[in-house]
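Notebook, student rotation project (T.W.).
Task set for the rotation: take a protein with a known small-molecule partner, predict the structure of the complex, and write up what can be learned from the model alone. Partner molecule chosen: nicotinamide-adenine-dinucleotide. Sequence and SMILES entered below by T.W., checked by me.
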Amino acid sequence: MVAVSRHCTRIEVIASVKEQLDIIISDLQASMGRHTPKSANANESETGASTPAYAIIGTGMMGREHIRAILQLKQARIVGIFDEDAGSVNRAIREFTQSGHEAPAVYTELDDLTNDDRVDAILICTPNFTHRQVFDAVKHTEKPIFLEKPMATTLEDAIYLAEASLSYPSSILLGMQYRYKSQYQLALSAINNGDVGSVKMISLCEYRPAFLPKVKEWNKFAIYSGGTLVEKCCHYFDLMNRIAASLPAHVFASGGRAVNFKDFSYEGQASDIDDHALVIVEYENGVRGQFTLNMFSEELYEGLTVSGDRGTLRAEEQASFKPGRGSSSKITVEVPGHTAYDGFDCTFPSAIESGGHYGSTLFEHVRFAKRVQGQQSDGASCAEGLWAIITAWMAQESIRTNTVVDVRETLARLGLDPFGEGLIPEINQRPTSDETNPS
Ligand SMILES: NC(=O)c1ccc[n+]([C@@H]2O[C@H](COP(=O)([O-])OP(=O)(O)OC[C@H]3O[C@@H](n4cnc5c(N)ncnc54)[C@H](O)[C@@H]3O)[C@@H](O)[C@H]2O)c1
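Predicted structure of the complex:
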């Protein structure tokens, strides 16, 4: 990778995007190779005894994606699972047996999981509204925790968890893996490198089909999910907050329910979730961001455009929920002399791309395994999860009140203080790229 120096000429500063992608891929492949047990059965207790042992709470759609990623990476083994739903347990066991791995213990009580001395780390993959309660039930173990996004459904619970993470004796890593999608890893690195100069505008969009079926359909109800922008879009507000490198100051949004689940009800309760929105965020450092969500599209399309005073970067992904249709990613950096000026196909090789959410889940697990082994990693923190939720929540509040929401004023009115030490992510307190890359 090309070293960055503020004294370099422009062309020297611009790293080869292909070179960076190759490094990202080979790093992942190397970390997979490093921990490969002698036996093909990565989950076998004897051969994998030197790898950390995980227990998973919640083996629905996402819990099973984690099982597949862990089995593929072979950096850890899964010694036990717990889920309230027999169907989810059976489907999880099939993930092991069908891929030739030893099935883990199935706990019938959560206490059996927390009392299992073999367990080195705990993954919480239950629905959003349960995260705080499940965290509280396992925190006495003081073991490293992986907690799915969004951390919570309310601002109060998000602040509670972020504060709890500061005094928790082990690491808590959040499931915000979109930042490891190929196009976003390269985009974040290019932006960080100063390739587009001082960031001024961020534009993000997601077009996709409707919410998928869930166990007890929790994602069709704002009270259980936190609302569409919190539940689904915290990933994008996480990205936007990272790129803006500041805190949201004002949020204006318009959105609602146009097409999906308008006649849907579950156990007599009518669905109330939004399926589209337009969100504008003004950051405290003057960066402007916008986000578009559409959930009644046939296929998936994600686009990020970031404009700075040196040029514009675009990071895109096309994907599908339909079997047999892979994803493709591309990055374009319209800065004179940039190696990605005409666009660069950065789709991961298929062995990675198929590894859950187009490969990003594998990168997240490499980071979690490092944390479990006592090393540092740049995985998402609870403070980052908190500010992603705050940004999303303010957008929902703007839709509800049809007003521009002043973030600090609203938090003060609600009696909430997420500004304490450790609660503002370091990345959001960075000097602007004007200050770091004068030219
Ligand atoms: N990072 C991502 O991109 C991503 C993608 C999808 C889902 N998620 C998140 O993962 C979590 C799970 O979502 P999902 O799609 O797997 O939902 P799901 O409905 O498919 O699975 C949830 C599972 O949790 C179980 N469960 C519920 N309460 C429980 C409890 N108290 N103890 C044990 N098990 C319990 C349910 O029985 C179910 O099997 C959610 O927080 C969701 O937002 C993240």
